[in-house]
User: Fold these one by one.
Assistant:
Number 1:
Amino acid sequence: MPEGPLHGVRVLEFSLIVAGPYLGMNLADLGADVVKVEPPEGEPRRHVGVVPGTSKIFQWVNRGKRTIQMDLKEPAARDLIHRMVRDVDVVVTNYRPGVPKRLGIDYETLSKINPRIIYANISGFGSEGPMSEDAGADMTAQAYSGAMAANGKIDENGAPEMISGISLGDTAAGIGAAMGVCAALFHREKTGEGQYLESSLVGGAMALEGLTTMREATSDKASREQILKRYAEIRAAGGTYADMIKARQEGAPTARRGANYWTGYNASDGALVFSANTPGGRVQVRRVLGFEGLGDDDPKVDVHAPDFPAMVKREREEIERVIRQRTVAEWMRDFRAAGAPVAPVLLPEEVADDEQGTHYFQDLVHPVTGPERQVKPIVSFSRTPSFIRAPADMPGDHVEEILHEFGLTEAEITALREAHAIV
């Protein structure tokens, strides 16, 4: 198979948890040779599964990489990194602010050794502002970016509940940094210049939900100013987060057409969603349902009329009644035949084996845990294919192989082990 578009690019990754590993994973999917440096005991996410030394989350974001375990607090390990970085194109890190400098792997140090390196750093809050030195996690990013409140989930105690099932800030920061690395490599190809780039968990989450946080003077007068006033009233009265979320949801515009066709419904054996955000799409859905007329898309219907909400509610109840009478498969057959914008709601455990879902996966065999199926790279190419090079490795699988590639002799490797610099 032809090599990926980043074939020949060597990456040295200092990372943990999700954001940094996800950045490196994307580079590996594009064909880069990614060497991940772990502490002697292995990266923390290796140890949260049922199999010693690996876990599903580790295998997900560390596929396609080779790892080496070393103690960066040992001078011999730092010397080794400084030797290796001479032959590296990209350095990735997502350690807490200040840690890279203490370990001697910060951009200022490494760029003096190799001025051509692209150094990608992911932090919690970015390098500007009063919280730039603070640690951050995906929960932090969801909360501070506004995404958590925009999602509106509240737990049984009335407290904020995180958006589950997706590491929003982590993955957004990782994808953004991977895009930045590719752009920086292109710039270096033209100029020979390396550079430092960064993304953050909070910034990544904000970028993905920017519509809810952006400011726009004309629209803000009609909505933002009123809801901010309501927030202030709730806070002054000693109200809770749940009270503010309720106020936000109640204050959302309801006088719009097609609300019943941009939502989900229960069939007899599962659920499906309508994603008809155009009048044409809603016509297609209504035809399959057997509904007459244009519904609230009829220009004669006044969305500001006092009885409009009741009309929408009655139609919603009728759609619920009709959809509930048949299975998801039966409805999907008819909706697809009509070209209507409708999709089944798959449960996470079902996706990999669904007739459409299976096309987004690649089968691998892990040396310890056996067969696995992982989501393919996020982008595909016609001439330089992206694909998962290999499953995540186990500690120690590639240490000597990696060090030999960087020019170390057996005697040097033995000396590093004796100095406790590597495992």
Note: The longest strand covers residues 33-38.
Number 2:
Amino acid sequence: MLKRGKLTQSFADCVPLFIALGDSTRLTIIQHLYEALPDGGSCPAQGLNVKEITEQTSLSRPAISHHLKVLKESGLIDVRRQGVCNYYYLTIETAISKLACLKDELQNACTE
């Protein structure tokens, strides 16, 4: 029963990721943030602000802000304040860790 609880918790931990990744607009935003990474993604990015993301997606600022909030809550992005601007950038390590934990729990459940 304890193992089932761990699997249930792993799924619950990943729900925000599944919600965030289940929307094509959010995937487009992730792609733009990835493309903004210096050195092809090998080092932390300065990020993009809402205006830049809006220009690249042709969505309204409120719509972009909503999608950024969902992505931030999922742990896929974070925000850095510089002056009066907020810059959004990818932070996927926590998300990858949660998905890896879910994978491990599923593998354990299948081998029992």
Note: Residues 76 and 96 are 9 Å apart (CA to CA).
